[in-house]
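Something for you to look into today, if you have time. Just paste the record in under my message, thanks.
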Amino acid sequence: MYQRKLIPKKKLEMLLQQIESFVDPTPDLEQYPITPRGASIILTIIGNTYNDILDKTVGDLGCGTGILAIGAALLGAKEVVGVDIDEKQLKTAQTNAIKLDVSEKVRWLKLDVQDFSTSLEIIIQNPPFGIQQKPSMDTIFLKQAIKHASTIYSIHKSGEKVRTYLRKFIQNQNATVDAIIPIEISLPHLYKFHRKKRYPIKIDLYRILSSSKK
């Protein structure tokens, strides 16, 4: 059977470099963007290794200015929903989608993640790590994703302690951790308390299979 080829990782990274990042980001919301390189690595794993983007309905919870949502659209998702509580970031996401000619594929919802109720095949999310916020915020994102998608890709801080905690939490949500993929990415200088131009950070990309969503 003929299978459409996805955009190569390097080309995807070049396209994503056109995306405008956060406008006046809020530390309390932990608005840390994924760089084009990091996003292209993550999306290529999801799209190529697991074939979980092409012709799928995809959601991005806490989408910010849309890099993961737009990247999924560029890789051939059938429909993409980007969700964020911050209206100014969503406006930038809309502009970014127009710039990359995927605006007809992506819907943007201004919504608290706890009010999200759309059923999807795939959710890709970069939730708050709980460094600035209350620690439960990442688990709120996970709960919602597990309720509303069959397969979830969720980015979390690396480390055995975090893995042990999240494995147990995810199991208690009637879901299974299918894979944990360690990745090193970098965070750009965004806030006054940042001292370096780039901050390397180790993350884990969780692939989660939900039994709650039928």
Notes: The first helix runs from residue 9 to 16. The two ends are 27 Å apart (CA to CA). The chain has a mean pLDDT of 87.
